[in-house]
Structure formats: structure tokens, C-alpha cells
């Protein structure tokens, strides 16, 4: 009897170790599964990402109803150097809508908030790294090309990245959710659309694939964050301007103004005393504005009401409508990226549409005191 109890206790602790293989190294994940990645992958570690990830369903309109699954980064900390202290970067990052309106006006599909689609199991040939979460999450670590090169000193560096990705099957389409964590602190977020056209190979009806993300950026902790919109006016002289976002609102994106959003912390500074932050840098194919009012702006800033509240991109205009103060609080950014799958499609799209990517980057501002990994 005693032996049986001991054996089941051992089995339980072994299971816990399997679930949290690196728990001894870092603070446990309050939600989800822990993952630690150090860079460079060969030799002594310099930078380090410590993540929590999870697969959850978006909430439906009534508490018991649930919608599509999404791969969530439920926490991310980055250590910018071997001797540096880790800095909290993300409280929560997730894709929160895939909106597919067809060019004739109908159908208008909300693939994440109308139906309960699921992440699919990935085959080993699809994921060259480690498959996690019942094979539905792929972890890959690899090269990311040239990071920098110094023209005066014979020194250069290739970068590395950790990528977590999943596929949401939404009927005839598969959608890739991808989160890349670079060795320099950059986070690259991408969405990919691949699959079959709605009515088969001969279907030529154009449509958009719009992806929306909820980005709870927590620069050095959840509190005390302020968003600024930066813009440039280009002439012989280039004039830059920065506007503090005081209350919840949608933000225009202006190609001529190089619009980007910086989130900085009130008190957190690097070794040079400069404020730490992260910048939302759009990677834009084009900008859309549909009759649906949440698509009126590609970027929104709202106030966080905790990890379980206000999760649907489709309702961001409602969340923002009471214009709560957001300066110096725990704020949430929202980003909408669009891909136009044109009418009269090319024959390359006949059987299965090759992956079309859209996304954005979150870039560190003064997390390091100098160029990452520069000797
Ligand atoms: Cu398409």
C-alpha cells in the first residue's frame, strides 16, 4: 500500500518535471508551459528568452460557448546580456481574429470568433524542431541571417532565433500562427494563409485574409507603460513628431509618415539611463478599412482589464469606446494585418494556395546598452 502510494507520488512528480522541464531554472509559469532559450546556441550564453505558452480557446458570446483555439505567449522575459537582469516584455500575445470578407460583399467569415476551429497536429516532416502540446506547437531554433557587420573592424555576426508556430485549420484554409524570438530581443509575429479556395481550384473570387493580434506588452512589468505614436514628415529636412496616447483609441497608419508605436515604461532604464521600451513596427502590404467598425483602424490602444477580459479583436472598438486613460497603465496594443487574395487568381494558387505571410515586429528600445553581441 505504502509502496503503491510512493510509486504514484513519484509518477506525479515525474509528470510535473516533464511538463516543466526547466522549472528549476526559472520562475514557474502561472499559466501554460515554460520554455527557456539561450543565445548563442553554441558557447557561453549571452541573451535569454524565458516564455510561457499555452493553447486556449477564445471565449464565445456566452460563458459556456467557446470559439477557435489560439497559440498564446502568456509571458515573455528577455535577458539582454549574460550579466543583465531579465526584463519582462509580454504579458500576453495572441492572434485574436481572422476575418475573411469576399470581394463581392459576402460571405464575411470570422474564422476565430464565429466557429470553434482547432489547432492541428503537425507531422514531423512539417516541424523540423521539437513538437510540443500534443504535436500542435512546433519549436524551432535556427539561423536568421546576418545580424550586423562592422565595416571598420573585421567582425560580423549571424543572428539566431527561436520560433514557435502552430496551424489553425479553418475548413478549406490553414492559418499559420508564428512567433519568432530573436537573440537580440526582437519579436517577429507572422500569420500565413495556405489551403484551398472556398469553391475549389476554379474559384476566382477575390477575398482578404485579415489577421488581428492582441498584444499585451508589459515593458519591465505590467504597470506604468505609456504608448507614443511616432511619425516623420519627409522633405529636404525630415521632421519627427511623437504624440502620447492618453486615452483608449484607434490609430491611423500613414505610409508617408512611417507610423510606428513605441511603448515605454515610466521608470525602467538601461545602463545608460535611457528609457526601456518596445516598438510596434508594422510590415505592411496594404491597408484596409471595411464597414465593420473594428477595422476602422489597423492599430488600437486599450487598457488591460486582466488576462481573461477583452480578448476579441472584433470588439476592440467597443472596448475603446469609453476612452479610458491608458498613459502610465497596463495597456494593450491591437494590430490588424491584411493580405489581398486578388480575384482571377494566378494558376500557382490552383490546388493549394502557397503560404502568404503578413505580420509585424516588436523591436527592443534601449534594452541593451549597445549593439547586441558586439565585442
Ligand atoms: Cu485566399
Low confidence ranges: 1-26
Query: What is the CA-atom radius of gyration, in angstroms?
Result: 22 Å
What is the count of DSSP helices, taking H or I runs of 4+ residues? Answer: 2
Structural class computed from helices and strand pairing: mainly beta
In CATH terms, what is the fold-level topology? Beta-galactosidase, Chain A, domain 5
Number of strands: 20
The CATH architecture term is Distorted Sandwich
Order of helices and strands: HEEEEEEEEEEEEEEEEEEHEE
Strand content: over 45%
The largest sheet, given as strand count, sense and whether it forms a barrel, is: 11 strands, antiparallel
Q: Helices and strands in order, then pairings?
A:
Layout: H1 2-19, E1 33-39, E2 47-59, E3 66-80, E4 87-101, E5 108-110, E6 118-119, E7 130-132, E8 137-150, E9 155-170, E10 173-182, E11 187-195, E12 207-217, E13 225-234, E14 238-244, E15 249-251, E16 260-269, E17 275-283, E18 299-303, H2 316-320, E19 331-341, E20 353-365
Antiparallel strand pairs: 1-2, 2-3, 3-4, 4-5, 4-12, 6-9, 7-8, 8-9, 9-10, 10-11, 11-20, 12-19, 13-14, 13-16, 15-18, 16-17, 17-20, 18-19
This protein binds copper (II) ion.
Short characterization:
This protein is mostly beta strands and about 375 residues long. It has helices spanning about 1-20, 315-320; strands at about 35-40, 45-60, 65-80, 85-100, 110, 120, 130, 135-150, 155-170, 175-180, 185-195, 205-215, 225-235, 240-245, 250, 260-270, 275-285, 300-305, 330-340, 355-365.
Structural overview:
This protein has 375 residues and is mostly beta strands. It has one domain (31-365): Distorted Sandwich (Beta-galactosidase, Chain A, domain 5), CATH 2.70.98. 6% of the residues lie in helices and 50% in strands. Strands 6, 7, 8, 9, 10, 11, 13, 14, 16, 17 and 20 form an eleven-stranded antiparallel β-sheet that branches. Strands 1, 2, 3, 4, 5, 12, 15, 18 and 19 form a nine-stranded antiparallel β-sheet that branches. Strand 16 and strand 17 (275-283) form a beta hairpin. It is globular and about 55 Å long. The model is unreliable at 1-26 (pLDDT under 50). The protein binds copper (II) ion. The site of copper (II) ion has 5 residues, from strand 12.
Amino acid at each position: 500500500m505504502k509502496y503503491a502510494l510512493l510509486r504514484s507520488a513519484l509518477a506525479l512528480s515525474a509528470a510535473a518535471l516533464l511538463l516543466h522541464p526547466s522549472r528549476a531554472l526559472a520562475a514557474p509559469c502561472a499559466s501554460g508551459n515554460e520554455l527557456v532559450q539561450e543565445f548563442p546556441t553554441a558557447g557561453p550564453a549571452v541573451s535569454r528568452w524565458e516564455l510561457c505558452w499555452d493553447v486556449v480557446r477564445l471565449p464565445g458570446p456566452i460563458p459556456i460557448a467557446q470559439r477557435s483555439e489560439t497559440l498564446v505567449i502568456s509571458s515573455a522575459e528577455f535577458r539582454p546580456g549574460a550579466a543583465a537582469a531579465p526584463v519582462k516584455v509580454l504579458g500576453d500575445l495572441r492572434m485574436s481574429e481572422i476575418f475573411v470578407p469576399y470581394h463581392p460583399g459576402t460571405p464575411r467569415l470570422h474564422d476565430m470568433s464565429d466557429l470553434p476551429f482547432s489547432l492541428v497536429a503537425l507531422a514531423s516532416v512539417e516541424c523540423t524542431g521539437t513538437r510540443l502540446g500534443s504535436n500542435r506547437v512546433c519549436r524551432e531554433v535556427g539561423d536568421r541571417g546576418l545580424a550586423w557587420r562592422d565595416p571598420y573592424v573585421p567582425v560580423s555576426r549571424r543572428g539566431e532565433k527561436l520560433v514557435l508556430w502552430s496551424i489553425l485549420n479553418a475548413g478549406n484554409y490553414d492559418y499559420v500562427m508564428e512567433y519568432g524570438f530573436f537573440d537580440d530581443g526582437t519579436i517577429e509575429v507572422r500569420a500565413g494563409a495556405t489551403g484551398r479556395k472556398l469553391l475549389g481550384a476554379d474559384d476566382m473570387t477575390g477575398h482578404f485574409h485579415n489577421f488581428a493580434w492582441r498584444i499585451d506588452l508589459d515593458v519591465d512589468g505590467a504597470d506604468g507603460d505609456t504608448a507614443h505614436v511616432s511619425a516623420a514628415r519627409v522633405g529636404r529636412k525630415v521632421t519627427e513628431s511623437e504624440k502620447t496616447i492618453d486615452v483608449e483609441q484607434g490609430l491611423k497608419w500613414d505610409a508617408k509618415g512611417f507610423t510606428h508605436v513605441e511603448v515605454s515604461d515610466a521608470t525602467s532604464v538601461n545602463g545608460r539611463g535611457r528609457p526601456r521600451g518596445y516598438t510596434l513596427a508594422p510590415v505592411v502590404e496594404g491597408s484596409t478599412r471595411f464597414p465593420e467598425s473594428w477595422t476602422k483602424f489597423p492599430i488600437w490602444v486599450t487598457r488591460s482589464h486582466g488576462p481573461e477580459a477583452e480578448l476579441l479583436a472584433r470588439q476592440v472598438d467597443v472596448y475603446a469606446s469609453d476612452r479610458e486613460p491608458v498613459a502610465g497603465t497596463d495597456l494593450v496594443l491591437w494590430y490588424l494585418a491584411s493580405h489581398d487574395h486578388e480575384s482571377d487568381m494566378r494558376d500557382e494558387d490552383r490546388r493549394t494556395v502557397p503560404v502568404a505571410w503578413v505580420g509585424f515586429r516588436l523591436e527592443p528600445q534601449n534594452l541593451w546598452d549597445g549593439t547586441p553581441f558586439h565585442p
